[in-house]
Amino acid sequence: MFQKDWFNVKSKATFATVLQKVTVLILLHLFLLGAGSSLAQKCNLSLRGKILHQENDNPIEAAYVMVMETRTGAASDANGNFIIRDLCPGTYTITVQYIGHKEIRTTLELTGSSINQTFRMMEESIGLEGVDVHGHRESVQTTTAVTSLYGETLLESRGESLGESLKRVAGVTTFSTGSTISKPVIHGLHSNRIMILNNGIRLEGQQWGAEHAPEIDPFLADEITVIKGAETVRFGPEAMGGVILVNPPSLPTSKQNQTDIHLLGGTNSRMGNISAAYTGGSEKIKGLGYRVQGSAKRAGNVRTPNYYQANTGMAEYNFSGSVGYSSQKLGAELYYSFFNTEIGILRDSHTGNLSDLQEIINNGEPFIKPDFTYEINNPKQVVSHHLAKVKTHYHLSPEWKINFQYGFQLNQRQEFDRRRGELNSRPSLDLELFTNTLDLFVDHTRKNTWSGSIGVNVIQQANSNVPGTGVTPLIPNYDMVNAGIYAMEKYLKGPLELEGGLRYDFRTVSAARFVGNELQEADLDYQNFSAFFGGRYQLSPYFSFTSNLGTAWRPPNINELFSQGLHHGAAAVEIGDPNMVSENSLKWVNGLEYESKKALIELTAYANRINNYIYLNPTGETFVSLRGTFNVYEYLQADAFFYGVDLSGSYSFTDQFSGYLKGSIIRARNIEENNYFPFIPSDRMDWGLSYQFGNKAQPNANRITLSNLLVAEQTREPDFDLAPAPPAYALFNLGYQRKIQLGDNSLNVGLQVTNLFNTEFKEYMNRFRYFTADMGRNLLIKLNYQF
């Protein structure tokens, strides 16, 4: 109980007020620190920038940038970024070196302001053994808010779903159905408003359902990037809320090999997880590389602090493989991934009659409290996803490159309900979604000043209900075609970076289904323009400012138009509206960043006006059938205004002792009704302290971290909900990470305890909060061996 008293849950306005004041004080302190530093030294200019591959704009890690006159320099990080501080005004000779690439030597003049410079390096054919040159990899350079998970941070997240991993990013939460199904939420938006790219291919699954998690294995990635702006110009209508890039490791183009093995175990649900990956390069064919990867996961009933949840086990089996070739002129890649999962749905979410439904909501926890088991029964869902792509690029000249990419996807979703007799073995929802995507675009770079692209994108989809379910399909069969053309341009000069873009999309949808003996058909067309303009300016050696203003749109999805029945996996009746129109938004994102040798602070503020925002609203009515009693939801539209603040930062008190802070505040108002929308994340703050034993440069470094997550009560509820929002909660987590060097190989050992004090809590963004508490204490043991 001390967690709730300490957090003061009775004060509903305290959390947001405290976080706002903390933000102001931190920024004021950093401003005075930066101003003081500038006054204390005359040589206060800096050179910062990014090192990229000329052939594909991928970041280069460990390139060295040298200022010849001062003999000072810096190496680029995993994102290609570097910074050299404490430079005096004057003219300098700059060299950029990276093994296997041509040296860059240029002259830059620093006057009264710092410079932000991008260097693109060209591969050079040299006969050295052990040169680590990598092939094509998808990356996005943008002036909007971007955060990446890689290295140790990504290693710590291994074994979690994609949605859970991304909660490490400020402003990103999850919309979940129990403890095993979660999908990412960026600035209050989720599902078809968030685009996920699997190795450059937009993931197309049945993501319209609240319990439809992304069909992707996080183990295939060595970097996961979150773009928190409207990116419809780059990717199309489904990117109006943000983009998530899941990037596998780059393929080698020289003789080398590496094996990665992950072994994980968890006490809660007695989870076991294994993943293995092998990467190799050809000795005979320079530029040829390949990678294979697979994983398996098994878990049983989830346990809250006081009881097991019935039928909450899961099983997952995944595979991915790729082969690629890269040279100075030509690059090509073949890629395939397979995702398969079986997930049990909390049995108590499917009630038998109206009185049972009311009683379990009033009770707040399940009446059925079984022992532990791995067995998965109905209700459940079985999902498989195939993705294949072929991509090639060709350099027309050192400045111009043409790119072609084709992707094919097959998504198969089956949802099973508790039914009588022979029907129990049949799925109640059985869908197959075929998707073909085609991208053709041209990139150009003009030395280090101009870069951009122009291209076309075509998407074709066919979704069908597989016969034999014995029920009227929730959504009709449909065919969809979307075609878009776009152009983007970026300008970089000194401390200033500007970019802009324009896109036009046209979409046609044809739907048909039988309701009884009556054939219902619909043919719909949608079209719209989207545009953005953004910039970044280096205010001083320590401060930088970014701003991005973009329009976006999204046509209504098929379920929002035509849902008319029981959605078994969600345990709810959903009613669509065929007269819905497209959503249109205008989002403005501003960011202020402070970076010094010891501190990194990022503040992001945004405002998003969405006309005709589509949301699923509880009606308060129930539907009674032979299969049980279910709440009724309907899709509605209203003008919305989303706005909020994200704050993240870290500070190194000493070489061994450091801390971090992440927080987010979001508000989402229904402008037409002057009330609030359902399922909007509440205010939250995550902070922690880490101690590094020894030195990071030591081969056997180890680190311990204690963190605390504070989540406020959601007081901005819609006019009607099935139950009041749960109270605020505070969770403590403990982590230990050790890296052991074994010759040329390395062993990473991790120990994590989530919900350290086994606190009982309910998350407002969990759809099953009406029926049960969230997961209790969980001890995770993680082993990673690289050789």
The CATH class of the largest domain is identified as Mainly Beta
Tell me the number of helical segments per DSSP (H or I, 4 or more residues long).
7
Low-confidence stretches: 1-13, 33-41, 126-136
Mean pLDDT comes to: 86
User: Major sheet, described briefly?
Assistant: 22 strands, antiparallel, barrel
Structural class: mainly beta
Could you tell me how far the N terminus lies from the C terminus, measured between alpha carbons in angstroms? 47 Å
Shape: globular
Proportion of beta-strand residues: over 45%
Structure description:
With 787 residues, this protein is mainly β. It has a 22-stranded antiparallel barrel. The radius of gyration is 26 Å and the shape is globular. The model is unreliable at 1-13, 33-41 and 126-136 (pLDDT under 50).
Write out key terms for the chains shown.
39 strands; 7 helices; 22-stranded antiparallel β-barrel; mainly beta; 2 domains; Immunoglobulin-like; Maltoporin, Chain A
Structure in a nutshell:
Belongs to the TonB-dependent receptor family. It is built from 7 helices and 39 strands.
Secondary structure layout plus pairing:
Elements lengths: L1 H6 L6 H27 L4 E9 L10 E4 L4 E4 L5 E7 L2 E8 L6 E7 L4 E7 L24 E5 H6 L5 H5 L5 E6 L3 E6 L7 E5 L2 E2 L20 E5 L4 H4 L6 E6 L9 E10 L4 E11 L6 E12 L14 E13 L3 E15 L9 H10 L16 E16 L4 E17 L12 E18 L3 E16 L11 E17 L2 E20 L2 E21 L4 E12 L3 H5 L1 E4 L4 E4 L7 E13 L3 E27 L2 E25 L4 E14 L4 E2 L7 E10 L8 E10 L17 E14 L2 E10 L23 E9 L1
Parallel strand pairs: 1-7, 11-14, 29-32
Antiparallel strand pairs: 1-4, 2-3, 2-5, 5-6, 8-13, 9-10, 11-12, 13-14, 15-16, 15-39, 16-17, 17-18, 18-19, 19-20, 20-21, 21-22, 22-23, 23-24, 24-25, 25-26, 26-27, 27-30, 28-29, 30-31, 31-32, 32-33, 33-34, 33-35, 35-36, 36-37, 37-38, 38-39
